[in-house]
Recover the amino acids of this structure.
């Protein structure tokens, strides 16, 4: 069929995008058959479809025969264009490949070599840092060893003290107690290195070094326990009242007693500083204001509790044996004098610098007025944490007398309820007891002062003590 000639085939229907072969076949069958016929005659629609296909095939053949040369020319042009594009693309691919190979040779391989060198340098640097930290730990361990030897005595005595830190305090070394504070700082430096957890910090990775693990487990921890025990024993055995009685035996005894009291104060100050430094710390960063020296506070509270309970028991026994009352009151006043001396030492003992805490406020920072400066100075000593732990704002001596008076009243009432000679002796001696107890309080509180710095009147504490003992006896 020539181009432009009419055709009975509806090409528009076939070229419609919504053309459906099933719908077209159904309409063709219905147009050549009756819907009620059984069976249907499919030969006629099939012939129609085959004839249409033959017609379309003839039409395609005619068109391709007429347009063969233009189609061949177009195909040849397309093939030539594709070959030129492929050749140009091949040239570009070859250039890119060569450029990549050159880049790989000049950059990538050099970068890989540089990366290997960087990794090796980092590992070498980490090894050097770890070696330096190990050497510093060993140096600090040697330093701590000499300090422990200075505290406990060298050779077998020092080893025995490490093995039994709770044992009797050795008197080897005249001034061995002076090494306690230095040993505490050495232990803190070691602790700081052992606790390093951030990469780059001094001591990071020391837990992987066997010699450091051995040093920590077999020497540093026992040495720290020994230093703590030695400082606690020093505080628990603190007493200057026994040396004050030596002044009545001549000039040489006075000089010796003064020297012993001075040494006792120095030992206590060193022990308190040591326990402040070695008190356990809560995890995470801690400032000086947040730090609670639990080890120091528990030891000082134990010292106060022991003094109070010992005095209570001694007075309770003396109340049933009045001939021993005078000596007992001397002992009670002596313990109060020790507490007064303890308070004075702690008040004058400034908070030591702790290497693991945030730095304190600079001392040269100007205060708004003189009162603020005095208050800041008061808070910077070791007495305030103890007063806070005891839940008192008064002095330690006042706390001692009031805590001592609290259980005595019940003890006296118990003696009176039993009756007998002890109860009659107490009632007959109430005037003498009133005078002796008041003198005991005033004598034991000598040296204490108020916050204003003037001599304190202790009549209130004396009245409390007299009321606790003489009050239940009646008039």
């Amino acid at each position: 069929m020539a181009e432009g000639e009419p055709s009975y085939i509806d090409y528009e229907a076939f070229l419609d995008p919504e053309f459906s072969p099933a719908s077209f076949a159904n309409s063709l069958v219905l147009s050549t058959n009756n819907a009620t016929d059984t069976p249907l005659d499919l030969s006629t629609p099939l012939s129609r479809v085959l004839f249409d296909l033959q017609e379309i095939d003839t039409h395609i053949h005619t068109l391709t025969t007429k347009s063969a040369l233009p189609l061949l020319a177009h195909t040849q042009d397309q093939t030539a264009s594709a070959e030129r594009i492929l050749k140009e693309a091949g040239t570009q691919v070859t250039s890119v490949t060569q450029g990549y190979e050159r880049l790989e040779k000049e950059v990538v391989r050099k970068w890989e070599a540089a990366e290997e060198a960087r990794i090796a340098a980092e590992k070498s640097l980490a090894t050097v840092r770890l070696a330096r930290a190990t050497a510093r730990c060993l140096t600090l361990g040697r330093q701590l060893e000499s300090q422990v030897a200075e505290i406990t005595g060298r050779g077998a005595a020092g080893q025995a003290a490490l093995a039994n830190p709770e044992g009797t305090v050795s008197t080897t070394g005249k001034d061995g107690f002076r090494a306690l504070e230095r040993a505490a700082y050495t232990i803190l430096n070691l602790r700081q290195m052992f606790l390093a957890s951030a990469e780059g910090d001094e001591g990071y990775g020391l837990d992987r070094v066997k010699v450091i693990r051995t040093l920590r487990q077999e020497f540093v921890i026992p040495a720290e326990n020994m230093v703590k025990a030695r400082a606690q024993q020093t505080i628990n055995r603190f007493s200057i009242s026994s040396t004050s009685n030596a002044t009545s035996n001549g000039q040489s005894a006075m000089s010796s007693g003064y020297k012993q009291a001075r040494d006792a104060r120095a030992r206590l100050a060193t022990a308190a500083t040591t326990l402040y430094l070695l008190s356990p710390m809560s995890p995470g960063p801690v400032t000086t204001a947040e730090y609670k020296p639990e080890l120091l506070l528990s030891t000082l509270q134990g010292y106060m509790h022991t003094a109070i309970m010992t005095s209570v028991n001694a007075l309770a026994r003396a109340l049933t044996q009045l001939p021993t009352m005078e000596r007992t009151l001397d002992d009670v006043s002596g313990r109060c004098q020790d507490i007064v001396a303890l308070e004075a030492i702690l008040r004058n003992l400034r908070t030591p610098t702790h290497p693991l805490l945030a730095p304190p406020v600079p001392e040269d920072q100007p205060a708004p007025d003189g009162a603020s400066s005095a208050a800041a100075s008061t808070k910077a000593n070791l007495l305030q944490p103890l007063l806070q732990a005891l839940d008192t704002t008064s002095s330690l001596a006042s706390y001692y007398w009031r805590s001592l008076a609290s259980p005595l009243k019940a003890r006296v009432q118990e003696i009176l309820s039993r009756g007998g000679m002890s109860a009659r002796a107490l009632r007959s001696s109430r005037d003498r007891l009133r005078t002796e107890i008041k003198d005991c309080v005033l004598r034991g509180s000598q040296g204490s002062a108020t916050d204003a710095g003037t001599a304190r009147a202790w009549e209130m504490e004396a009245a409390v003590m007299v009321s606790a003992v003489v009050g239940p006896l009646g008039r």
Summary: Confidence is low (pLDDT under 50) at residues 167-173, 363-378, 450-455. The CA atoms of residues 193 and 202 lie 6 Å apart. The longest helix spans residues 68-152.
